[in-house]
Amino acid sequence: MQWTAQSAQQLLKHFNVIKDKGLNAKRAERTQKKVGPNKIIELAKRSYWSYFLEQFNNFMVLVLLAATVISFVLGEYVDSFAIICILISNAALGFMQEIKSERSLMALKRLSAPLGKVLRDGVWQRIDAEQLVPGDLVRITSGDRVPADIRFLEVDGLYVDESALTGESCAIRKTEAVIYKSKLALGDRKNMAYMGTMVTKGNGLGLVVETGMQTEMGKIAHLLQTTHETVTPLQLKLEQMGKLLVIISLFLTVVVVGTGVWHGQDFYRMFLTGVSLAVAAIPEGLPAIVTVALALGVQRMIKKKAIVRKLPSVETLGCATVICSDKTGTLTQNQMTVTDLWVEGKRLQVTGGGYDLEGSFLNNGQEVQKIDRMSGLSQLLKVAVYCNNANIIKSSSALKLDGDPTEAALLILANKAGLKETEGNKIREFAFDSARKMMSVVWKVKEEKVLYVKGAPDILLGRCTHILRDSRRVILTRALREEVLAINEQFAKKALRNLGFAFRTLNHTVDITNEHKMEQELTFIGITGMIDPPREEVAASIDLCQRAGIKTVMITGDHRGTAQAVADKIGIGSKENKLLTGYEIEEMSAEELYVAVEETSIYARVSPEHKLRIVKALQHNGHVVSMTGDGVNDAPAIRAADIGVSMGVMGTDVSKEAADLVLADDNFATIVAAIKEGRAIYDNIRKFISYLLASNVGEILIMFLTMLFGMPLPLLPTQILWVNLVTDGLPAMALAVDPAEGGTMCCKPRNRRESIFARAMGWKIITRGFLIGLCSLLAFTVTYYQDPLNLPLAQTVAFSTLVFAQLVYVFDARTNTTIFDRNPFNNKMLLLAVGSSALLMLVVIYYPSLQQIFHTVPLGFREWLLVTITSSLPVIIAGLCDQCLLAKRTT
């Protein structure tokens, strides 16, 4: 039923309730058994063990378990322990993310009111809000949290803050009047209030029409329960790569073992060699290194005020193509601010945004140095302070404002002019109401009584007979009236919220108890225009996003005029970008929306369902979507997006729990910094994947070629495992902290379907790995044929060449081009890691006890010269070839 269109009599009849009696207890109990308790219902809980065990149910983890068993059979207990630690760590991270949904629902439940004032059996009483049922009569007042979805029957100056649900920055004035228009947005249903929203002023009597999961808050809870998180591009790529690597590695291992046996090698020795090669070829340390890379990136992002709640989502930022941002509190400051004034025929601009007490008054760009006490501007500021119930609360940490945001903005305006104190006493106040559309107060200063009035400029103008000009009262002529109305219209087109100001000196015969008689024969002073201003850094951040190939979309529950005005100021609005409202989205089919989202950058008057549809439509079109918001209404879309971003200061618990990334400073610019970091992290992940796989290609190749040519084994099983341990550990991790290459934000986002081997990385892995394998084989062959009886010496040379060739290649892996294009000394962690690995290699070669385990012999000068040359050749040859190819392309 459309509750907004029903009269009070129709509603009472529908629920069969008497207004001065309410429901009786027995009937309320029967109704609750039928509709259920007034609370957010969770889905059946799964055990924590099921969440934890589910983390092991993927292909890559099963491969790692197999590698653990193999390593244990080979006696590599340290390797086995390391792999088990990796698996448990990864499972723990996944487990923490799986229970995030439960925390989201708990946060929603905390928004439910604990108590409600309800009329039962003719008696007003406070009961647990869970016991409310449709048909209950409830009373709410300032400071209350609305206990259910209610339709108002009576209101008295009632304002409700619905920003967490609708995204509107100001409290909404409520009415009991019937609204016959169909398909109203939540923010336009002014005779309704919704569970979890806050009453900021006034009081009201309402009829409960929806409870529990049928409320608007309950619908959001249902969306959260049924909206599944997306798999990140990196997770998909690693899953695909893991399967491919296992198949290739096992195939080549079987070929190597079969070829060796065919050439007369001992089957048992070849079996152990083949298993060792398989363990080395499958980069079991890759998930751990990826986790380390993401964790280190997270630490850097924390320093930039971006808190990551889900590690794999970090790199998703790097391929984001669309940022869907909430307006209020994200693109704007969520602080109403007076930006424009019109007084005594002059139009002034006010500087200083939000709750900043510092600011100036500009007239045609020139600062107004001194405000005359008798001027119209001084009179307007006096009315702004006197006709006001807000308060400025100063503390050592921050400035807080208590009261209506509009009145708070007027106090800030007066403070910028130095007007802070009031004079005299307030002896009467007539609150704002929808009929008069104005508020007035009577102040007594010494023996004089003055009426100060603020309200809708056009209504207020009708009560005025005079206007201030040149600090004097002059007759309000028709021409002057038209001038005021024209200014009011100009402000409105800028989506400013306008207020008019007037005053009247009262004589002793005026009845100050009758506002209608007093609010006549007023003197009009001027108009203020206010808006929730954009954050100062947002425009530059949006421009940077555009240059990086990222589209910024604004989604708000505010009116289309306000949305368009803010979009124009920050650089989102343009002739090519359409504006859609929630009503227009409802009229569209899914196919029509798929087309519309490509042409639209501004969405106004939208609901949580609309936001979710927009995100899913963009994803359907192949976009990687980041959804930014701070309210409960944003949570379903935040969770459905490829990466959800919540505000840390103004954000609700629900939006934070649903998000992957929380901005500690609520700064849109922080998202851009996070995107840059996400791109750098992904590049680093590609670097160590390139390094690991090229190294593994070299290991497999030397074994395959020697078996193919019928040569002795160049590497023994323990040597293969040692190569894997020394080269796949510290150097690979050091690549995770490699500084970003220049131009990170000068290129378009990568395609989410792009292979992890794209942009010539696959070619680089093959060529470098092939050269590493060939040069290691060359060193082995030269040494072996010089002294065929000293096989351990040839194996030690091959062993050393393979390790040092990989340690040299790690510097080449740092760049997408060649080793000559980057300074090798600007990653100190990498230098330390390579030095440590080289030292460990020397210990294995020269320490007697380890010589027996790894079957090594000491090397002399000639052998080390051969190792140095052959281990350096791969990157030198590849670098020169790449430079030649690059030169040919440029010419």
Task: Please provide a written account of the structure.
It is a single chain. The chain is an alpha+beta fold and 891 residues long. Strands 10, 11, 12, 13, 16, 17, 18, 19, 20, 21 and 22 form an eleven-stranded mixed β-sheet that branches. An eight-stranded mixed β-sheet has the order 8-28-27-26-9-23-25-24, sandwiched between helices.
Euclidean distance between termini CA atoms: 72 Å
Integer average pLDDT:
81
Runs in which pLDDT lies below 50 for 5 or more consecutive residues are 104-113
Largest sheet: 11 strands, mixed
Number of H/I helices: 33
Keyword list:
891 residues, 33 helices, alpha+beta, elongated, 11-stranded mixed β-sheet, 28 strands, 49% helix, 8-stranded mixed β-sheet
Compact overview of the structure:
The chain is an alpha+beta fold and 891 residues long.
Task: Describe the secondary structure blueprint for this structure.
Layout: H1 8-15, H2 25-35, H3 48-54, H4 59-73, H5 77-98, H6 100-110, E1 115-120, E2 123-128, E3 137-141, E4 149-161, H7 163-166, E5 172-173, E6 192-193, E7 198-210, H8 216-226, H9 233-262, H10 267-281, H11 286-303, E8 306-308, H12 313-316, E9 322-326, H13 327-331, E10 337-343, E11 346-350, E12 361-363, E13 366-367, H14 376-386, E14 391-394, E15 399-402, H15 405-416, E16 425-430, E17 438-445, E18 448-455, H16 457-461, E19 464-469, E20 472-475, H17 478-493, E21 497-506, H18 515-518, E22 522-531, H19 538-547, E23 551-555, H20 560-570, E24 578-581, H21 582-586, H22 590-599, E25 600-604, H23 608-620, E26 625-629, H24 635-640, E27 643-647, H25 653-658, E28 661-663, H26 668-708, H27 717-728, H28 730-735, H29 761-786, H30 791-812, H31 828-846, H32 848-854, H33 861-890
Parallel strand pairs: 9-23, 9-26, 19-22, 23-25, 24-25, 26-27, 27-28
Antiparallel strand pairs: 1-2, 1-3, 3-7, 4-5, 4-6, 4-7, 8-28, 10-11, 10-22, 11-12, 12-13, 14-15, 16-17, 17-18, 18-21, 19-20, 21-22
